[in-house]
Amino acid sequence: MMKKKIPVELHVNGEPYELYVPPNRTLLEVLREDLELTGTKEGCGEGVCGSCTVLWEGLPIRSCLTLVTEVQDAEILTIEGLAAEDGSLDKLQQSFIDHGAVQCGFCTPGMLMSARAFLNKHQNPTEQDIREAISGNICRCTGYAKIVEAIKEVAEEQG
Ligand code: FES
Ligand code: FES
After folding, report:
1. Which residues line ligand 1 (CB under 6 A)?
2. Average pLDDT over residues 142-147
3. pLDDT value at position 106?
4. What is the mean pLDDT of residues 17-40?
5. Ligand 2 test: best mutation among 107, 111, 148, most atoms within 8 Å of CB?
6. Whose CA is nearest to atom 4 of ligand 2?
7. 94 Cβ partners below 8 Å, 6+ apart?
8. Which atom number of ligand 1 is nearest to the Cα of residue 43?
9. Sheet holding 59-62, edge to edge
10. 50-98, pLDDT tens digit by residue?
């Protein structure tokens, strides 16, 4: 039997969307499958790896554990919305490139979203603060050192 669909209004990266979705559809499914915003990655699908992290009103959330009905009318930011409108990269994106903090890249969108949320709210963080801020984002490639360096440089620039 087909599940009943319900109307949902979303704001993603500044764009409004109106959708009809089953009530148990996750934000991750909506982003990737309905809106075709595939920059947000699905790793574990159960809240452990952080690769699906997006910002909800500026706070990092795991979109695989979030029902889309929970974030109606809130402002959602995904990796596709991180660069400026003219296409220039967010400083964190550039710093990740400059420091070689990307290997396979699977963790990178979620990592960047967690780091961006953190730097928006914290000035002059210590390396330990940065490590804690990204502790919910698992990277299997880099060993984290270059990621932490990349975030630290942007933190220092912003003072
Ligand atoms: S896919 Fe959401 S936490 Fe792993
Ligand atoms: S760069 Fe491959 S998982 Fe982080």
Report:
1. 42-45, 47-52, 62, 64
2. 97
3. 98
4. 97
5. 107
6. 139
7. none
8. 1
9. 15-21, 6-12, 75-77, 53-56, 59-62
10. 999 999 999 999 999 999 999 999 999 999 999 999 999 999 999 999 9
Q: How would you classify the pairing of strands 15-21 and 6-12?
A: antiparallel
Q: What is the 157 CA–ligand 1 centroid distance (Å)?
A: 30
At 13, is the pLDDT very low, low, confident or very high (cuts 50, 70, 90)? very high
> Mean pLDDT over residues 118-131, rounded?
96
Residue 100: what are its φ and ψ, rounded to 5°?
A: 60, 40
Please name the residue that has the structure tokens 């574990």: 44
Question: Rounded to 5, what percent of the chain is helix, strand, coil?
Answer: 40, 15, 45
